[in-house]
Records
---
Amino acid sequence: MKTKTGTNIDEVISLLNCAKIVAIPTETVYGLAANGLNEEAIQKIFKAKKRPLSNPLILHFKDVMDLTKYVKNLPEPAEILANRFWPGPLTLLLEKSELIPDVVNSGKSRIAVRIPSHEMTLTLLKKLNFPIAAPSANLYGRISPTKAEHVIHQLDGIIPYVLNGGKCENGIESTIVGFEDNLPVIYRLGAITLEEIESCLNVKVKIHNHNIKSEGPDSSGMVKFHYAPRTPIYDIDEMDTNEDSEHVGYIGFDKLNRSIPVENQFLLSDEADLKIASKNLYHSLHYMDQKNFKKIYICKFPLMGLGLSMNDRITKAIAKFRT
Ligand code: TXA
Ligand code: MG
């Protein structure tokens, strides 16, 4: 199959209407999209990504009105978060209605839903009469794409079309929030910070304990390793002072590392701005992964705001090379 990259929304609509899968831009990362009500189309997502069927997908809607048909209810804190952050990088876990095929959310009782803010994808959603099911458009366990080229690198020849919406604004996945006894719980840290959720609801918010499995297998954002490059990646604090640094790369926040050649380094934000760093994080991993280094070292971020979300992804990438 030849994979085209372009900006033709009508072409994407025709493909989705005949149960094909296409990559679409969102403000977080690129998604691998299918008709969210069509089982055959959804199966193709799992196959293309090599993702286990036990790992549920997110459904994307054009607005809250449209979404309410597909969920049983909207708890009060969910409504407050929705009003504040949608359209935008927030995903809510809500009780699903019978309209959604089980394959979308692996037969769980809750469905992950969000309203993305990327203009191209909102335009697309408004022209469709079904929601879009879309996980990140990467192979299972690998780095999420934040540019059309990143999608091509992993899925060339596997999907017919990549809708090119430029570099993703946030560069890190949406924050996933569920509710237990009407209290919010964060299932995945992401582009909206823990502090923003807490100040919006005026409560302390728990982060889901990933060891407690309430409904079968944990979700991919929760497994121990994920988001990993092929080149082994380690925490910079683990670098041996005697190590030959010629063939190692370094991804840093705002400061170069004196032990590694400057040309082997990628700084995420000269100004130490967490928003800019998070926009560049996955791009830096894709970029460094193509450099054929023996190893990549990476820094850790301040334990606040987007720093927490980025540390979560980095920890999971590093964990792959500890086994
Ligand atoms: O920013 C995003 O959320 C991107 C864009 C494309 O929207 N999508 C994304 O999807 O990151 P994905 O499939 O790569 O990650 C979704 C995460 C997975 O870890 C999945 O297991 C979890 O959400 N998830 C989905 N439904 C769930 C449910 N019912 N209960 C618990 N976790 C769920
Ligand atoms: Mg993903």
---
Amino acid sequence: MKGREIHLASRPLGWPSEEDFCMAEVVVAEPQAGELLVRNQVMSVDPYMRGRMNEIPSYVPPFEIGRPLEGGAVGTVIESGSALFAPGDVVLHNAGWREYAVVAQDAATRVDPGLAPPSAYLGVLGMPGLTAYAGILDVAAMRPGEVVFVSAAAGAVGSAAGQIARLRGAARVVGSAGSPEKVAYLRGIGFDAAFDYHDGALRRSLRTAAPDGIDIYFDNVGGRQLEVAIGAMRPHGRVAMCGAISMYNADEPPAAPRNLALSMGKRLTLRGFLAGDFAHLRDQFIAEAAAWLREGELQYRETVAEGLQAAPRALLDMMRGHNLGKMLVRL
Ligand code: NAP
């Protein structure tokens, strides 16, 4: 049997283009003992994948030129060499960017399509959702009654982070996003205030949205918004340093934040984290988030590109902000 997969063709400097990817048709290997053959239904494109296109040592190895990219995917087992999985099982694994994947049994997690559609396990019930949950509740250690600011708030992580903060008792949740439509969406899902960061007057926008300052900043973008958030923090405030997407395609160092020294007087904590460090919270997170979804208290959106060939464009579109909620590719 043959299947298509997407390879890294070249390493971009600055913004990638679709020419940095290429499609290949390959013979799909037979699953051996302890392996599954999975037909992928839906795959994720995520900001961290941009970092893996660079040849820079990081917490995950770089993608290799001429080899398939990887990333979260959900698919159906069509052949099983494992007693733990049967054909028809729906599994989450990390061999996305291809139509068929041969996956080791210990690298696959069965998901419950009765709880939520398979795509949700790549977004609100998956890694982005766990990132939001761990970032708000553990890294930032939010307490009821605090004021929370979230950037990239209409995206997969940000929309979950703001809603989880509200559901766990934040006094006020503020979000920033990149368009008037996204700002309207945030107000619709329960953010107390939201603004478009393109409006220019960032400092004034945040002061209007949170006149008494903020206790927590869930940082998805870094740069100028981080600077403005540091300026707005109350004493003993915490920054959950989740991502810095404003810098992922930059070819020069960021100009901001320039006010880090404020962190001493205000006794701030700025703590970086990775979702992978919080696997121990996964079951608790899924149980709590699934209940919120069932009750209609946690909302999510997906932006879906069609077909494997659309995946490179989907990754670029996500970094350009064309997604509302989780960016996915349906295969
Ligand atoms: P996402 O928010 O669904 O999509 C990315 C969004 O970033 C875009 O929709 C765009 O929205 C925004 N953006 C792009 N360029 C920007 C800029 N220059 N300034 C401000 N916003 C910009 O993506 P996600 O998967 O949820 O990830 C969000 C962040 O969390 C990323 O930084 C990612 O690296 C990080 N993350 C970290 C972990 C971890 O373990 N630490 C795990 C998952 C994700 P706008 O239209 O609003 O600009």
---
Amino acid sequence: MNTPLILDGKTLAANIEKDLKVRVQRIKDITNETPVLATIIVGNDPASVTYVKMKGNACTRVGMKSLKIEMPEETSTEELIEKIRELNRDKNVHGILLQHPVPGHIDEMACFNEIDLLKDVDGVNTNTFGRMTMQLDSFKCATPYSIMTILKHYNIQIEGKDVVVIGRSPILGKPVAMMLLNENATVTICHSKTKDLEDIVKRADIVVAAVGKPKFVKAEWIKEGCVLVDAGYNQGNVGDIDLENAIEKCSAYTPVPGGVGPMTINCLISQTVESAERKLGLI
Ligand code: NAP
């Protein structure tokens, strides 16, 4: 029977945290400063509240501080932009996270684009995307960075592979496709208007699912030996791939939970530590 490799993001994140803790302590010892991640949450979406809490807990675990800013549901784009500008100016803040999604009346992209590139530790600014795509020095979009970190850690070959990314959102599908392309994969990006999705997925050596629909990718679509990366996280702790049935066909997979999610938080924290190290002249 096929025993696929589990691409365990949870354990990997826990191991990387040990190193982050040492780096944070070094910053404190040398400069007497503590890295600070500012998290902005607008409204009371329960999933977002949980994510922000998890990010705050991760800061505490590595010895960083998190500055939590809660804004009411009715906040306007202008008010949110003003808050971001304030955090850009704040010398004690090293990273800024605007929790996605914001309420529908807010121009989210305009807000993302206000974040100072040097503090864009979640990698959501359009210029961050452009620089990352062109392989210039930049922070990286956290979830795609998490996926790439997992694939590299487990020595999954990317170069020359046929990779199908399902989803093209600015924070996930699009940037992960660019990162995979930069690693010399042949990348196909699918979306809601894609025809013959099943046939396209059937050709893939690696599938990255970023759709936001529970168990959307069916086991019958999966080629024998395929690597499955499930970025989805839906109610009931299920991803975007029908992993239960697809596992026996794949060679490796990210579990849900415990795969991409924990490493996303880790990448956010890691880039905040890096931001502090840069600002303080330690790297
Ligand atoms: P999103 O903004 O809603 O984007 C979903 C994408 O899926 C869109 O590009 C959409 O196509 C495509 N899509 C929808 N229906 C489709 C269909 N029938 N066939 C093919 N493509 C289809 O979602 P997102 O923010 O990228 O998030 C995707 C998933 O990842 C969600 O489950 C979310 O919870 C999860 N997520 C996880 C993390 C983490 O850290 N683990 C972080 C962020 C998000 P169109 O562009 O044509 O509409």
